[in-house]
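Please, structure for the following, as tokens.
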Amino acid sequence: MKVEIQNHVEHLPSALNGMTLSNLLTRSNRMASKAPTICDGTANAVDAKLSEIDRELSISVITEEDTEPVLDLLKRFFFKDEPLNTYVQLGECKELEKYCTKSLGEHSSYKAVNSRGEIVGVILNGTIMKPQPGDEPPAKLADNCAHPKFRKIMALMDHVDEQFDIFELYPDIDRFLDCKIISVDTNYRGMGIAGMLTDRTLDYASRNGIKLIHVLCSSHFSARVMEKMDFNEVYRLPYADYLVNGEQVFDPEKPHVALRILTKRLDQ
């Protein structure tokens, strides 16, 4: 497989200058970084697809102009395959679309593109700033979510935020880069694309003085990718332990048994 890395000089966006920390610290940036499940198929189906795969890929930064093709990829794969989305049978969700694209202006997210110009994988990232004394606490995600199925997922994210504060674990960190979503076209899985996209994210963080990378994984497979890249687990919530009114809310298919937060420091 030939992979071309397109060089870009990316820095933290100028739009961040002059913004208050309370504006930057949006709880919606804390939603899970998830990779869709790997879909198994018959050998014949796999053989048929292999002939269609374009293995000449390039990795480059995502811009606002990529919004529609990025959403197209996510709707075809991530929206359907991510374990919690699958469990609640999420369907169309404009609120999830907005969440996925809200940080593209930072130019910290990356895409894998084949020689036909098709986006076959993405990693969507966003910067989270440490709250400062006097900042108003952000509203809970579920409170502002009109989509009933997506609200269940947002309530889980609110619960995690209440139970775990990454800035308490890393008191010397004033910001971190959150890998929110990783998604790869089914036909291109198993080619190391998620790892290449993560490598590019690590490079972005290093060049911009960001010392910590954070990933909230709802998928066993995304967590496995991060562990192979030396990310360490700092929080785990088994789905069986997340109860509302005494009842388990999520029970996705195995091997997806827990929501996990993994981190990697870049200054050690």
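The first helix runs from residue 21 to 24. Strands lie at 2-5, 56-61, 110-114, 119-129, 175-184, 212-217, 232-238, 243-244, 247-248, 258-265.
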